[in-house]
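#struct-help
A.M.: can someone run this one for me? Single chain, 326 residues.
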Amino acid sequence: MEKLFKEVENIKSKLNQWGKEHIPFVFLIDFECKKPLCWTWEEAATQFTFNFDGITNQKNHSIQRTETPIHFEKIPITFEQYKNKFDQVKKEIGLGNSFLINLTTATKIETNFTLDQIYSNAHAKYICCLKNEFVCFSPETFIKIKENKIYSYPMKGTIQAGIPNAKNIILNDQKEFAEHATMVDLIRNDLSKVANNVKVNQFRYYEEIKTNNGNLGQVSSEIVGELPPLFNEKIGDILFDLIPAGSISGAPKQKTLEIISKVEKEDRGYYTGIAGYFDGKNLDSTVLIRFLQNDKTYRSGGGITFNSDAMNEYNEMINKVYVPFF
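D.P.: on it. Structure tokens below:
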């Protein structure tokens, strides 16, 4: 544990120093903070390839887009296996130990594409690939920093967009509303640790994400706060003060993390961690969801509340297993 603490402090110190000197850098932090990584912009290209909302270091990436159709078969855990975990989570909620828990599981995948090929052919807001370890194509922003303001866009609420009237259905669903409102409150509190005048700019807006199996509807909000002068000198502290993201943990955060560890019984690793870059002035980052590992295991999940239905959550977990090819 002491070794892990020293490693985190070392990464924080390095990011703070680079921020102070306005040196562009790239960072990758796992969910448990056991193996955080950071590089200067130039160093990152040989190990960590990314395209974050149009900002990329992929000029050195050799794999090109292919016309070969992808074979992508899901082999999820059974409903009975999922329900066993779900029931443990519901019990903790019933005891009052948490009121929102993000439960995730692993789905085995059969595919003819390598991680590099998936990276090169995917379309998403945030795409990244850690060499020989994982590829991620996330729709979710963690935080953005621009002109001394910090923004967060918690994403909570998913529906198959092909369902008639999907947008109105999810926006008027009381369970989804309560879950999203809880998440917004959590993120507001988190941002208040590092920023002033935190407020919700936009509450519950709907977007659609294209996948190889049709579109998914997602509900997000925008939260913004004002950073103090010279925030860049504490940029490492800011990042570690805010992780893990509320949308992939729950509330209250610390107790919920203990429950997640007990129920999931394995480290998430880089899945549901964060990754991003600092360009010397501004920062952009993503929550590492929509995540395929090199052992062809795809991780996905969703938020569980007192009113959650096991079969609906099981189906949502499976629906989130996709590649954004179109």
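A.M.: thanks! The radius of gyration is 19 Å.
D.P.: also worth noting: The chain has a mean pLDDT of 92.
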